[in-house]
User: Which sequence fits this backbone?
């Protein structure tokens, strides 16, 4: 796989700094039941990196110490970690919102037969990847049979109340472009998804998040192989919108890798661009344990050329577009 970091380090992206930390985004490991082209984590069934028990035990402590309101669990498939459910229970016991970044097909893996009921029982917000509302496009990007499984999973979640008004169970979907292009307008695309999924499958959901593909890991390597890397970077830079800087996710989120190391975002994590060391961190690589005592507010954020992916066009974050019809959120 081609390395993309050497092509990204020299950058004219503007300096930005952190605000109050609110969200702890934890990557529990890179093992996944799928291998998707757009995956910036390069996750898959053969990956073995998984968070150990001691590091996992730090997470509820950090949530309490920092009075953080959201635990955002990702992977790989975070549900494949043996400690996933105990971690969810611990965070919910602190009245912390829990987000599960779910690929939907995980609901049909052996041992996960009751996963949907578990998530509903603990009011876990689901952010589910569904790159299109048509079978051909989804299976092309994520493998044959993925679309049918995803639809069945969404129907199962709907039956439990997910995505329905006043249920308290939030179901958001994620769209990624299939190639080297920016996502279309999120609001209009959401309307298309809602119409098509309801008319054909009776499926409802809360929001659609349109997320830009990052020129790193598997997707970045593919761009290099096809000779499209420079053109894609030009596309991101040409569509740079300064207003998006105010609401990029790294302002109030910190990313934790499977070893407990800290990064400004999960893209920096996969590029091994560590969170800058602060006065209270122990060593050059800031760690989850440092958050028991460290305040990150005001700290500089590590930047490189891939940051243009979050600020191009309508903007892109873990919560989808940063603008609606040209107005910053």
Assistant:
């Amino acid at each position: 796989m081609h390395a993309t970091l050497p092509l990204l380090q020299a950058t004219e992206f503007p300096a930005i700094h952190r605000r109050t930390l609110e969200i702890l985004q934890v990557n529990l490991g890179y093992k996944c039941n799928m291998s998707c082209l757009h995956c910036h984590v390069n996750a898959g069934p053969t990956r073995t990196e998984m968070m150990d028990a001691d590091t996992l035990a730090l997470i509820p402590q950090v949530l309490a110490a920092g009075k953080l309101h959201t635990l955002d669990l990702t992977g790989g498939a975070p549900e494949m970690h043996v400690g996933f459910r105990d971690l969810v229970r611990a965070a919910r016991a602190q009245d912390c919102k829990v987000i599960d970044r779910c690929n939907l097909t995980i609901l049909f893996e052996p041992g996960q037969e009751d996963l949907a009921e578990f998530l509903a029982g603990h009011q876990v917000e689901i952010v589910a990847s569904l790159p299109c509302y048509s079978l051909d496009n989804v299976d092309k990007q994520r493998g044959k049979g993925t679309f049918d499984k995803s639809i069945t999973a969404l129907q199962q979640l709907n039956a439990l109340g997910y995505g329905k008004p006043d249920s308290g169970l939030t179901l958001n979907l994620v769209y990624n472009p299939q190639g080297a292009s920016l996502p279309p307008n999120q609001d209009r695309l959401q309307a298309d998804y809602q119409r098509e999924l309801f008319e054909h499958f009776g499926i409802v959901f809360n929001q659609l998040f349109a997320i830009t593909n990052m020129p790193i890991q598997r997707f970045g390597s593919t761009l290099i192989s096809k000779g499209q890397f420079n053109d894609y970077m030009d596309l991101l830079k040409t569509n740079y919108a300064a207003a998006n800087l105010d609401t990029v996710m790294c302002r109030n989120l910190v990313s934790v890798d499977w070893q407990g190391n800290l990064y400004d975002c999960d893209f920096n994590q996969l590029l091994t661009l560590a969170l800058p060391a602060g006065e209270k961190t122990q060593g050059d690589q800031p760690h989850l344990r440092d958050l028991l005592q460290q305040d990150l507010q005001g700290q500089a954020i590590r930047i490189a050329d891939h940051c243009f992916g979050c600020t191009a066009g309508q903007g892109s974050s873990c919560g989808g577009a940063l603008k609606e019809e040209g107005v910053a959120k």
Observations:
- The chain is about 30% helix and 10% strand.
- Strands lie at 23-27, 70-74, 97-102, 125-129, 171-175, 207-210, 253-256, 262-263, 323-324, 327-328.
